[in-house]
Amino acid sequence: MIISRRFNGPPDSGNGGYCAGRFAALVDGPAVVTLRRPPPLETPLQAARGSAGFRIYAGDQVVADALPAQGPAPAPVLPVGLTEALDASEAYAGLADHPFSTCYVCGVDRAEGDGLLIFAGPLPDGRSAAPWVVPDDVAVETMWAALDCPGGWAIGGVGRPYVLGRIAAVVSALPEPGEICLVVGVCDGVEGRKAYARTTIYSLKSEVMATAEATWVAV
Description:
15% helix; 33% strand; globular
């Protein structure tokens, strides 16, 4: 497989959630993906099957592991209403200070129809939230991408960027192109350079469409 440059996170590597969704497709059923290094763009990647799951390589460098998820599915974040999500998005910290402004998911320098433009801003209780207009090319890996960055923005700590280290996600349903969904994130704790977050994508009727839990690592 090849990760197109369109799906970058940092300028020269893939968006963690999108890449994890691509890698998770190798696994039967719910998966957990650990990123071992920034996924390279426009580079052939090979998957090798092991006893537990799959290991993804770029040449002789290990990029990621994709394994069957163990234990219960990630617990959904409390839902949010559209007005709350819109208000939160107006206070999106990335509008003033964004470490990766061309990120496929949350970059402020992406055009409509090219990036997902999910600008998750803070809620009074510490969660992050944003509305999301679903793109025409929505797929399971798009949902994994949408579950990524809102969790990172829930961690806070502007000026100390985090990158995705591990994510487990369950996609229950694909929304329709053009549908408005609500993405909510919450930080469950920080230990040293690691932070733990969950994200959920809701329909406007508060139906859970996808949920994830992730480990983030401070750069």
